[in-house]
Amino acid sequence: MSLCRLVVTCPDRVGIVARVSSFIAEKGGSITEANQHSDLETGRFFMRYEVEARDIGIDSDAFRQAFATIAEEFDMQWQWRDGAQKRRRLMIMVSKESHCLVDLLYRWSAGELDCDIAGVISNHDDLRSVVEWHGIDYHHIPVLSDNKATAFADIEKAIEENDADTIVLARYMQIIPPSLCERYSGQIINIHHSFLPSFAGARPYHQAHTRGVKLIGATCHYVTRELDAGPIIEQDIQRVTHCHTTSDLVRLGRDIEKSVLARGVRWHLQDRVLIDGNKTVVFS
Amino acid sequence: MSLCRLVVTCPDRVGIVARVSSFIAEKGGSITEANQHSDLETGRFFMRYEVEARDIGIDSDAFRQAFATIAEEFDMQWQWRDGAQKRRRLMIMVSKESHCLVDLLYRWSAGELDCDIAGVISNHDDLRSVVEWHGIDYHHIPVLSDNKATAFADIEKAIEENDADTIVLARYMQIIPPSLCERYSGQIINIHHSFLPSFAGARPYHQAHTRGVKLIGATCHYVTRELDAGPIIEQDIQRVTHCHTTSDLVRLGRDIEKSVLARGVRWHLQDRVLIDGNKTVVFS
Amino acid sequence: MSLCRLVVTCPDRVGIVARVSSFIAEKGGSITEANQHSDLETGRFFMRYEVEARDIGIDSDAFRQAFATIAEEFDMQWQWRDGAQKRRRLMIMVSKESHCLVDLLYRWSAGELDCDIAGVISNHDDLRSVVEWHGIDYHHIPVLSDNKATAFADIEKAIEENDADTIVLARYMQIIPPSLCERYSGQIINIHHSFLPSFAGARPYHQAHTRGVKLIGATCHYVTRELDAGPIIEQDIQRVTHCHTTSDLVRLGRDIEKSVLARGVRWHLQDRVLIDGNKTVVFS
Amino acid sequence: MSLCRLVVTCPDRVGIVARVSSFIAEKGGSITEANQHSDLETGRFFMRYEVEARDIGIDSDAFRQAFATIAEEFDMQWQWRDGAQKRRRLMIMVSKESHCLVDLLYRWSAGELDCDIAGVISNHDDLRSVVEWHGIDYHHIPVLSDNKATAFADIEKAIEENDADTIVLARYMQIIPPSLCERYSGQIINIHHSFLPSFAGARPYHQAHTRGVKLIGATCHYVTRELDAGPIIEQDIQRVTHCHTTSDLVRLGRDIEKSVLARGVRWHLQDRVLIDGNKTVVFS
User: Fold this and answer.
1) Measured in whole angstroms, how far is the alpha carbon of residue C230 from the centre of its chain?
2) Which end of chain B is more exposed for a tag (fewer CB within 10 A), N or C?
3) Do both C107 and C168 map to the same domain?
4) Is the ipTM here above 0.90?
5) D14, exposed or middle or buried, with CB in 10 Å at 0-12, 13-18, 19+?
6) D96 Cα to chain A: minimum distance (Å)
7) Residues C120 and C259 in one domain
8) Which subunits have 3 or more CB–CB pairs within 8 Å of chain D?
């Protein structure tokens, strides 16, 4: 093993850190980055270790088997991710707006996102050429008012067949059906083009312009059954003035959307985002 | 006359700037700062000039009389504020939280706010000593569930008798009655401790903590009959994380509230905030 | 004529605005955006008007001829840019880092930059494919220690032959010779990857890491003979911590560089940046 | 014992976390907040634990004695701070500018700063009244060109006699002599009114205005023998434009200075700032 990652969530109690860090030290691992958090309201404990594991004499399967005893004792949800094993596979879903897609593809090709791209799904054919130029498969699956069930069955199949484990809605303007939300719970990341909970739903920049806010924002969150209401991963804002028209807001907002989504996706891929009820713990 | 200020709102049409700037030039005035804005949706035009008026041979009353012809022609709402004349008089209203009050008093004593302080009104007696230390009158007017009408009559009287023309709600936790909102329309400035329209109403930091937002904010706005829904003057935010408890949000929020309110009040006193329906034009 | 733009710099004195705005009104133009600034230290006056000119009965040449009398009287440097005439032509120069180039090309193709791309010049051949995919000519002109004079002669020729009027150094890691700086004075825009004047020169992120700063930045400026010392157009920063390695700073810095350069170029193309000695007036 | 704090710096090696966290668990302590950092360049390890210690059966002296064995084994610099023991004592030093002083006193009285105020030292008598109103001793010790040695001897005596362990230079415009810098190494906090390393030395806002920067900043750092070159604790910035005069920069800068200094002092008092050569590790 080389660089590995241990992520743990469990009920908080005395001795977790001692027990886990001792276990890793005994096996020969060296903790190079450590984060932990106790949620005093829910009594949950969250932990993430980056471990230099080259001196651990056993392989990841054996390590996991040995760790399972501790995990059971503390009632942990946990994963041990081995850097040498399979990378995460991202399915990106888009409509017609290209800015988030192009930004993600650029960051991916520049090595900022530690994943493979399993493909791009769109309800329109507009963005095919830039996707294929990157050597990535483009799936055009139109979603119409009278074919939603079929279309989302095709989408689910495309996700499955391409072995994707993370789905990024990079300005995908369709509502994801509840069954898909639940099957990929905690694995679907959306960018909403407002500072949630303000301006949920449609046309948030128009809403923002009408209200006369002095800052616009974007929100990256996990998708749940309730629209625009899932756990927030990251948000950011941009100052605007009375001079800005709605189309200025749209233009300025694109930059926030890109950077907020990119940070959210990067942190998710690095297992830095732990879900805590309807909130997130982000070890950034 | 020395430094003066001309503020104009009117229906937009060709020739306003030419006419007004020519008038000022003819009279001998020199424009040292100029701002203007056309709202394409409402068709309204907004303008603010700072004028070095020492070479204008007539006094402000004569100037106003001469300007009235242009104003009528263009259907203007306007004011000519003479720097040598009476300063604005601020009535500050507070409950028990002192941070915005103390910040405003400090900025006022440091010369950052071009106004007189007409007094401080509070429904509690807690903040008397710091106010009186600044040589300012403190009016303790308790607002109880069974005396609201009387209390607000006393408040209105205190505003009148102290000749206040601007009212700043510096974390005043009572709802202002509609009659007062209307009498002092565009003259009552509130600080709300959230990034409106998110978390209007009570306990916004608790709401923010429950929703798990990654940024908290504050909003300075004019008070209208509808709670927390008046024209927004200024907003700002502060980044927070899963580590922050609600009381951390309250503490961090104090700094945003102070600076957002101070900027809003300063701009209002400098006639930089022009109301445009339920929005503002801010020539900052 | 349709949308036009008037930009003026001259010694400050009473009556400029009156004279110019009256002239435009007489000709039938409507000012849709106006900005002006008086530099009290240098006594210079700066002005920029956006003019809706469809009701001006004469063409741009006739307009310029008529305006020349005013310009002479007030000793103005000025230009009247007619939106229907030729767009500015951008020559982008790069080395091996692609982020600023790709960002500019994306914004250009999305319509955010009002210009034509005259071509891309690089001392390396690495970025040819992405440039040519956009249908833009790529000029590979290697600059070596022993061919600098020849190489820059070729570069100058490429700029000339492609009729470029604005040169953007989008992480071009060579020093521009003084003769080129002077020939294209006020037309060469550079992005420097630090918050100038901190960390001028080579390897600014390494310098920043060594000094232990808590914010890193980027600076967009006009190029002059003195390295990294020309008039600053725009700057921005990003928070960093002790956790960030130099390569983290490089990664995070890319996002600041992209957005700072894009804003600077956009404002330059809109004639919003006026040079005032070694500073800029930016009517953003 | 109730809430305690363990801060450790030592050469990095495998097993530190395991050893320390096991020790705390064995004694009955519960870690409520944990931070750690490995500096890969210097090979140093940094750690800070907040410990709920009410179930630790021994007192702090006994705890320290028991921990000393581990500390020696790992060659640690360390401290165990017992929340029930003596608070830190702050000596604030000022000249004539009051904003940082007033801000610190307000935050202290609002409970944001966990310390006692040992007194205020100034080379001028101007700020006596606001200090004494808070019930704090004011030491007027003029520093003149011909009495520096005597004056700083008096200052050192005032620090000693008032049992101060932390010195905050809240816009104290005198240079601290090297002997004092060394005696209180890592205990003297300064606010410099620029974004260091830009504009070190005198009149930074004038320097910033002359250079035409688009952002101004402030820097909180530990004082060392070399002027404005000590380890940086915190920095922040504020956007400015060509409209701002030097005195506007001074006014806007006051707000950054206040908040940057307050954060730096707060983190220092919470033992969140660990010195790492000429840099800092800040567990904020």
Assistant:
1) 12
2) C
3) yes
4) yes
5) middle
6) 35
7) yes
8) A, B, C
C33: amino acid identity, one letter: E
| Residues from chain C contacting residue B22 (CB–CB below 8 Å) | 18, 21-22
**Nearest residue of B to residue C31 by CA position?**
B14
**How confident is the model over A245-275, as pLDDT tens digits?**
999 999 999 999 999 999 999 999 999 999 9
Q: Are residues B52 and B111 both part of a single domain?
A: no
Report percent pLDDT > 70 for chain B: 100
List alpha helices for chain B, DSSP H: 16-27, 60-73, 99-109, 128-133, 148-161, 178-183, 204-211, 246-269
Please check whether residue B188 is in contact with residue B182, taking contact to mean a CB–CB distance below 8 angstroms: no
| Strand order through the sheet with A188-192 | A138-140, A115-122, A88-94, A166-169, A188-192, A215-222, A232-239
Find the length of chain C. 284
Q: How far apart are CA C172 and CA C174, in angstroms?
A: 6
Domain that holds residue B158: 88-282
Domain count, chain D: 2
Do B228 and B161 lie in one domain? The reply is: yes
Contact C214, D234 (CB under 8 A): yes
- What is the identity of the amino acid at B283? F
Q: Compute CA distances B81 → B5, B55, B60, B165, B168, whole Å.
A: 5, 16, 8, 14, 21
Judge if C28 and C169 occupy the same domain: no
B281 contact A CB<8A: yes
C14 shares its domain with C132: no
Co-location of D179 and D216 in the same domain: yes
**Same-domain check for residues B51 and B114:** no
Which chains sit next to B, with 3 or more Cβ pairs under 8 A?
A: A, C, D
Choose the closest CB to C18 out of B14, B22, B36.
Answer: B22
Which residue does chain D place closest to B99, by CA atoms? D106
How confident is the model over D111-135, as a mean pLDDT?
A: 97
Asked if the model's pLDDT at residue C134 lies above 80, the reply is yes
- Amino acid type, C268: H
Tracing tokens 């100058």 back to the chain, one arrives at C156
Out of D52, D82, D112, pick the residue that ends a domain.
Answer: D82
B284 contact C CB<8A:
no
Shortest CA distance to D165 belongs to which of D269, D50, D94, D274?
Answer: D269
User: What tens digit of pLDDT does each residue of B14-52 get?
Assistant: 889 999 999 999 999 999 899 999 998 999 999 999 999
